Amino acid sequence: MKALVLSDSHNSTWLINSLAEKYRARTDCIIHLGDCTEDLDEIRQKYKSLPIYQVRGNNDYDSLYPSERTITLAGKRIYMTHGHRHRVYYSTDRLYYAAAEEQADIALFGHTHVPYLENEGGILVMNPGSITLPRGGSERSFAFITIEGGRATLSVMGYNDGDVHIIRTLTL
Question: In the predicted model, what is the mean pLDDT of the chain?
């Protein structure tokens, strides 16, 4: 099971469409962590059978998607939020506790536009960064979650003019 994870796309649909096209054959679903949830509308139309899981961010004013949700993929519980309500600019503590309350194996967030991947008390906490507007000296980025044989491997990927490389990988 492999998920493509994106956040903070901010209306750059061409990049999202490019990634979806490139990885469609190897991706079982897409996760978007907010700020321009409508950026996936074209992918939703093109790949009707591809599951897309979304949460809204601080720049999503519709009520189509929840601000947080927990999904289960291949037996792993994944807590999803944009992160602004958890004050992730300052710490991931609130995010960690919210994920722990949901008995999550993985906690995903966006908002900062900075990639992040750490094992915090047995929960893999990840921000895929931003594919369009990186901050803090980071590069454009996205992520993968791969679940095989009961193990989850999370990989944050750098993206530079079509060149993709691993920034960091962790397995739980």
Answer: 88
Are 170 and 117 contacting, i.e. CB atoms less than 8 angstroms apart? yes
Which contiguous run of DSSP H or E holds residue 169? strand 163-171
How do residues 73-93 score in pLDDT, each as one tens digit? 999 999 999 877 767 678 788
As a whole number, mean pLDDT of residues 10-36 equals 84
Report which residue type is found at 117. Answer: L
By CB atoms closer than 10 A (0-12, 13-18, 19+), residue 85 is middle
| Structure tokens belonging to residue 164 | 């993709």
d(CA 57, CA 169): 25
In single-letter form, the type of residue at position 78 comes to I
Distance CA 76, CA 47 (A): 24
Task: Name the β-bridge partners of 29.
Answer: 3
Rounded Cα distance, 58 and 56, in Å: 7
Q: Which residues pair with 127 in a beta bridge?
A: 116
96: how many CB neighbours lie within 10 A of its CB? 19
**Phi, psi values for residue 100, rounded to 5°:** -65, -40
SS3 126: strand
Contact call for residues 54 and 103 (beta carbons, < 8 A): no
Other Cβ atoms less than 10 A from the Cβ of 6: the count is: 28
pTM of the model: 0.90
